């Protein structure tokens, strides 16, 4: 429908316009009946619909409608599958249309800085490329139905402690390279209708009133066209927020902040045009939805089946010493209450009221060879001697044991962070006890974030089910029995212990959280430190095997405008049909700047029959190779060599090839008396100016200078030391050493800067 929204706004009173900029209640925007502006609803998710009607609260205490709980982000990201994420989003979009929900509050793309963050289960990855691609696919799926998404929480909301006030203090390069790209990719590739700003401050300024974040970066640089809403209660000062680019306050301060907006327009401190623009942005999205209402029918059953498919294609097989898949004829005992009562989602605002939950025991109910022993409770840390004894007896009698371990609800949730990375003690103890009487032990983990695994070397099988959504039991047993060939890979590194994590010394600080590890988050850190991890980013096993070959790169000399196509052949060399996630990493060999050893810049998932070969393609551009230079205020890849690596995980590179970049962009150079010779000699804009001093300095201090030389050949200043001294010497020293007058040097500096 063709609407003249500007015309509509011109008919609104100041009060109506201010009112449009805050919610009607917890879940609705206001409407203006006399002008035909409808009141629309937003709802949490995003791994299902959490539509609440009566007595709304946002922390999941009041029930929402019965819906399908799909796998939370922690698991679905492990699919590394854009098509699957689109299909997931498409289902959410259909459900939202059918339930008259105009915007789904998600996806949540914050980076997993530490395994301790209580909301890690809602977030995709430690890697910004994977998080961005996954989010973009999901958003495109939802919005295909004209239902909006609200990508959240923008930005740098990486811990729960003091989340409403703490400041995430990070340098610009870190924000641009690690904490922003998932948002940037999604905004550019999927145009989310809305963005939800986070509660926290960034370098001291609340996200909800940060003009650099909400306007300069989000709109002016990335081209965001929708509206920004606050996280629930994230408004600090309303008028500065509106001016910074926060259009919608949620939920509603009962008119308090609307009055502030009205007063500010009246006293002239807020330009009414800013308000009009905010209203226009909100109404564009409101009508985008209401003008495209679809008659949608969906069945809970069909979406349950999709939830199972997503879970099964995402779970990660971490260890398999010839113990899996299980055979129907084997006597197997399932131990641990999670087999009966799986933990399949996390607590807080994303909590879905599942219409059904399938446990692993439900899923194998027809198989007489499977028995069950509770062993330990799902939601407590109590070692019960009777339960343990019963479990040990059952373990001894069985051919194989599957222990369903995991984190109880109380261990991780929105609202607070974990304080350690351990499983409940009762579980670790029972696992060790069982290992003493039975060697064929498989662990299935239900957790929203990595756990320490003291028993890792003793167990033969390990399946990371994470939080699997309501069809978790079916997905797990399909993998255990080989009906599904496992094909997920880790979207995060699993360190051996908490103190290995790069944010260990600053995570969870209360007021100012120093992101001192900078860009070295997750595998970027573990790889740089050559630190062993329990399981690396991108890792996951299969029941079949894959061979990589025939790496082709269409050009090895690359300019700033070029796109490079990389292709590689993958062959299923095993006996069953399977899917492989092929990963492309880039390594900067120029040495111009300190960078991670390698970074993920492409992935493709490919399905192969035994013996089959397919070629996968990747496309890289200049930005793929670049890092963010805060002085240049831009992305920069220096001229020089780079390595393209094709791997099966971040620590399993199979093929590589070097390419060479020739960049036009040059780093800005502001020369002053203390600029070093090293910088000036390395730059072709200045090298010629200072070469003569270099020669003079070498003659004066070098190994071959007459003062320095001794008869026995021994020297006080070696050539190496001389070179190092000159490299680090500031320009002003040529005056100190009488090689140049001060005026002459200042003129030269002015001339170089003029270049
Ligand atoms: C959460 C958001 C959520 C909102 C509405 C907030 O507390 O941080 O993720 O969408 O509540 O429930």
Residues in helix, %: 25-40%
Strand content bin: 15-25%
How many separate structural domains? 4
Major beta-sheet overview: 6 strands, mixed
Q: What's the β-strand tally?
A: 25
CATH class of the largest domain: Alpha Beta
Superfamily at the CATH H level of the largest domain?
Glycoside hydrolase, family 3, N-terminal domain
Structural class: alpha/beta
In DSSP terms, counting alpha (H) and pi (I) runs of 4 or more, how many helices? 23
As for the CATH topology of the largest domain, it is TIM Barrel
Q: What small ligands are held by the chains?
A: beta-D-glucopyranose
**Cα-to-Cα separation, first versus last residue:** 55 Å
Low-pLDDT residue spans: none
Mean pLDDT: 96
- Gyration radius over CA: 29 Å
Features:
755 residues; alpha/beta; TIM Barrel; Rossmann fold; Immunoglobulin-like; 4 domains; six-stranded mixed sheet; five-stranded parallel sheet; 23 helices; 25 strands; globular; binds beta-D-glucopyranose
Please summarize what this structure is.
It contains 23 helices and 25 strands. The chain has 755 residues and is of the alpha/beta class.
Describe this structure in words.
There is one protein chain. The protein has four domains: 16-69 and 77-290, Alpha-Beta Barrel (TIM Barrel); 306-528, 3-Layer(aba) Sandwich (Rossmann fold), CATH 3.40.50; 546-661, Immunoglobulin-like; 677-753, no CATH class. 30% of the residues lie in helices and 18% in strands. The strands form six sheets. Strands 9-14-13-12-10-11 form a six-stranded mixed sheet. The longest helix has 19 residues, at 272-290. It is an alpha/beta fold. The two termini are 55 Å apart. The model has no long low-confidence stretch (mean pLDDT 96). The protein is globular, with a radius of gyration of 29 Å. Helix 4 (82-98) packs parallel to helix 5, helix 14 (385-397) runs parallel beside helix 15 and helix 20 (687-701) packs across helix 21. Residues 44, 58, 105, 152, 231-232, 349 line the site of beta-D-glucopyranose. Beta-D-glucopyranose (BGC) binds at residues 44, 58, 105, 152, 231-232, 349.
């Amino acid at each position: 429908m063709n609407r003249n929204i500007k015309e509509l706004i011109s008919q609104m009173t100041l009060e109506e316009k201010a009112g449009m900029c805050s919610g009607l209640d917890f879940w609705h925007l206001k409407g203006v009946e006399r002008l035909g502006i409808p009141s629309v609803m937003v709802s949490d998710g995003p791994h299902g619909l959490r539509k609440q009607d009566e007595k709304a609260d946002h922390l999941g205490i009041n029930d929402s409608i019965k819906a399908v709980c799909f796998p939370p982000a922690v698991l679905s990201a492990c699919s590394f599958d854009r098509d699957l994420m689109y299909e997931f989003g498409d289902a959410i979009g259909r459900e939202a249309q059918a339930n008259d929900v105009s915007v789904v509050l998600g996806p949540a793309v914050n980076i997993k800085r530490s395994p301790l963050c209580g909301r890690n289960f809602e977030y995709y990855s430690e890697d910004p490329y994977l998080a961005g691609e996954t989010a973009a696919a999901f958003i495109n799926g939802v919005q295909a139905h004209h239902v909006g998404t609200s990508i959240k929480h923008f930005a740098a909301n990486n811990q729960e402690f003091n989340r409403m006030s703490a400041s995430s203090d990070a340098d610009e390069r870190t924000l641009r390279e690690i904490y922003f790209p998932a948002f940037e990719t999604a905004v550019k590739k999927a145009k989310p209708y809305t963005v939800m700003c986070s509660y926290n401050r960034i370098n001291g300024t609340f996200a909800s009133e940060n003009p650099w974040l909400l306007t300069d970066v989000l709109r002016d640089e990335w081209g965001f066209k929708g509206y920004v809403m606050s996280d629930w209660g994230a408004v600090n000062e309303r008028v500065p927020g509106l001016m910074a680019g926060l259009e919608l306050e949620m939920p509603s301060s009962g008119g308090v902040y609307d009055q502030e907006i009205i007063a500010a327009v009246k006293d002239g401190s807020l330009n009414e045009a800013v308000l009009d623009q905010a209203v226009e942005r909100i109404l564009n999205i409101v009508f985008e939805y209401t003008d495209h209402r679809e008659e949608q029918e969906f069945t809970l059953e069909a979406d349950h089946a999709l939830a199972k498919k997503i879970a099964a294609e995402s779970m990660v097989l971490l260890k398999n010493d010839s113990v899996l898949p299980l055979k129907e004829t084997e006597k197997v005992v399932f131990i641990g209450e999670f087999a009966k009562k799986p933990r399949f989602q996390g607590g807080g605002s994303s909590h879905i009221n599942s219409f059904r939950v399938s446990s692993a025991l439900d899923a194998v109910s027809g198989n007489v060879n499977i028995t069950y022993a509770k062993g330990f409770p799902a939601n407590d840390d109590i070692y019960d001697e009777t339960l343990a004894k019963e479990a040990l007896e059952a373990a001894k009698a069985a051919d194989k044991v599957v222990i369903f371990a995991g984190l109880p609800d109380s261990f991780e949730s929105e609202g607070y962070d974990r304080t350690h990375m351990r499983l409940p003690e009762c579980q670790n103890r029972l696992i060790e006890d069982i290992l003493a009487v039975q060697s064929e032990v498989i662990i299935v983990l239900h957790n929203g974030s990595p756990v320490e695994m003291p028993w890792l070397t003793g167990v033969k099988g390990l399946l990371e089910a994470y939080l699997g959504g309501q069809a978790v039991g079916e997905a797990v047993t399909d993998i255990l029995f080989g009906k599904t060939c496992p094909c997920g890979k880790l979207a995060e590194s699993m360190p051996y212990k908490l103190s290995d994590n790069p944010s260990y010394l600053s995570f969870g600080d209360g007021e100012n959280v120093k992101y001192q590890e900078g860009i070295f988050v997750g595998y970027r850190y573990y790889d740089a430190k050559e630190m062993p991890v329990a399981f690396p980013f991108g890792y996951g096993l299969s029941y079949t095997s894959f061979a990589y070959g025939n790496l082709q790169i269409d050009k090895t000399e690359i300019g700033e405008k070029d796109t490079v196509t990389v292709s590689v052949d993958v062959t299923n060399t095993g006996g069953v049909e399977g899917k492989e996630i092929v990963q492309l990493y880039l390594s900067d060999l120029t040495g111009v700047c300190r960078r991670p050893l390698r970074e993920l810049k492409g992935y493709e998932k490919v399905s192969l029959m035994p013996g089959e070969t397919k070629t996968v393609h990747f496309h890289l551009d200049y930005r793929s190779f670049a890092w963010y230079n805060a002085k240049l205020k831009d992305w920069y890849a220096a001229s020089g060599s780079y390595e393209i690596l094709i791997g099966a995980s971040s620590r399993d590179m199979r093929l590589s090839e070097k390419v060479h970049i020739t960049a036009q962009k040059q780093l800005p150079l502001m020369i002053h008396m203390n600029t070093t010779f090293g910088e000036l000699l390395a730059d072709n804009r200045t090298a010629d100016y200072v070469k003569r001093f270099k020669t003079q300095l070498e003659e004066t201090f070098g190994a071959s200078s007459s003062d320095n030389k001794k008869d026995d050949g021994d020297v006080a200043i070696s050539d190496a030391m001389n070179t190092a001294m000159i490299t680090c010497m500031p320009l002003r020293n040529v005056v100190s050493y009488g090689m140049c007058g001060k005026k002459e040097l200042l003129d030269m500096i002015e001339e170089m800067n003029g270049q």
